[in-house]
Design brief:
With 357 residues, the chain is of the alpha/beta class. Helix content is 34%, strand content 15%. It has helices at residues 24-32, 47-50, 63-67, 70-84, 100-110, 144-154, 189-201, 217-225, 235-238, 247-255, 278-285, 305-310, 314-322, 346-355, and strands at 2-3, 6-7, 12-14, 37-40, 56-57, 60-61, 89-92, 114-117, 136-141, 164-167, 173-174, 208-211, 230-233, 261-264, 272-275, 331-332. An eight-stranded parallel sheet has the order 3-13-12-10-9-8-7-4. Strands 11, 14, 15 and 16 form a four-stranded antiparallel sheet that branches. The two termini are 22 Å apart.
């Protein structure tokens, strides 16, 4: 799989998962095994027990400068390199975050080879990478229309996406669809992939990568046969030893049943898929932790106003999950998260995904 100037030996991208689910250990191991390891830029202020967060309030990184810590991101990428050497490394940066442009530039400066952006339509993404022409840019879309809009807007930068990820509504975390559209047949990944491939052909044959609900080699082969250059998978990598998540977070998925995985309301304004745990019950009972905007993580939340409306702060609750707090943590997962039955190594997982055994 070719993305910009970078060749990925195996057509598998490990999806970026924050806070702290895919950092140096996981991303480094995936790249080492021939896939594309992806570091999540979300919540880097929590890295190494908030070592790089210069100011904490109520034991949480204060403001976007600390929640998206530049120093921590540099450390994470340097440590990822120690694992995978000179193999390509990706960084996932949500478009909805505060300080998006600064975090993109930080990632380039830190040595990212590929930047992936979803949670919005990144119409100005190339604005922040002008000084780093070798960094490949990969937007995430949920429709051919979104890809067309991005390509038209990027023309002013004399740039096209180096690849595009098309994500269906079975993925973990935030969806690119309204709640009711997530269940419609026309929104399912196998139905939107052909439309995105046709649009990509009009723009110098941009490589298309399928994502959302992909689980095994059969799924991978299915989308490669449809004309995709590769796939992105996130949830399944949580079930690995190298995954940076706390053991308690992994345990939540190991114990989850299919009926526990739901589309949840989010302060970002999009439905988000995760495991229904004690947090959701406490929100309904009015006993959830009080919402106060400390990290100012995402623009759509409007400094905590949307968080108060849905009953939780996404930065705080993802941070709690990263720290293994099963009572107040928010645990995102794709629709197949309940299929994780045991923890295995990244090498074993990559072997399963490529050999089918």
């Amino acid at each position: 799989m070719k993305i910009g100037k970078y060749s990925i030996e195996k057509p598998i991208i490990q999806g970026g998962m924050g806070v702290g689910i895919s950092w140096d250990r996981l991303a480094g191991a995936v790249s080492k095994e021939g896939g594309l390891g992806v570091v999540s830029a979300v919540g880097t202020g929590y890295y190494e027990n908030k070592k790089f967060s210069k100011k904490n309030v109520k034991d949480k990184p204060f403001s976007e400068q600390n929640f998206y810590s530049k120093e921590a991101l540099f450390e994470i990428i340097q440590n990822t390199r120690k694992v995978c050497g000179d193999k390509p490394i990706g960084v996932n940066i949500l478009y909805a975050i505060n300080d998006y442009g600064r975090v993109v530039q930080d990632s380039c400066e830190a040595g990212a080879d590929i930047i992936i952006t979803g949670a919005g339509i990144p119409t100005n993404m190339p604005e922040f990478t002008k000084e780093y022409p070798d960094v490949a840019l990969v937007p995430i879309v949920s429709s051919a229309r979104a890809l067309k809009l991005i390509c038209k807007k990027w023309k002013r930068y004399d740039k096209l996406p180096d690849a595009v990820i098309v994500e269906g509504p079975l993925s973990g975390g935030h969806q690119g669809f309204k709640y009711e559209d997530c269940f419609k047949e026309e929104s399912q990944l196998e139905n939107i992939v052909p439309e995105v491939i046709e649009e990509a052909k009009k723009w110098d044959n941009i490589p298309v990568i399928a994502a959302g609900g992909i689980w095994d080699k059969n799924d991978i082969d299915k989308f490669l046969a449809m004309g995709c250059a590769g796939v992105q998978m996130a949830t399944r990598f949580i079930g690995t030893y190298e995954c940076d998540a706390d053991p308690e977070l992994k345990k939540v998925l190991l114990e989850a049943k299919e009926d526990d995985i739901k589309l949840l309301k989010s302060p970002v304004g999009l439905p988000a898929r995760g495991v229904r745990t004690q947090l959701q019950k406490s929100i309904e009972e009015g006993t959830a932790p009080k919402v106060s905007c400390i990290s100012n993580c995402v623009a759509p939340c409007n400094r905590g106003e949307e968080a108060k409306a849905v009953g939780y702060c996404i930065a705080d609750r993802l941070g709690a999950a990263y720290q293994g707090d099963t009572q107040t943590g928010l645990f995102f997962t794709g629709s197949n998260g309940y299929k994780i039955e045991k923890i295995i190594s990244v090498k074993e997982l990559m072997d399963k995904l490529t050999s089918g055994e």
